[in-house]
Amino acid sequence: MSAGEKKSFSLEENFKQLEEIMEQLESEDISLEDAFKAYSQGMHVLKECNEQIDRVEKKVLKLSQEGQLEEF
Question: Helix, strand, or coil here: 1?
Answer without folding.
Answer: coil
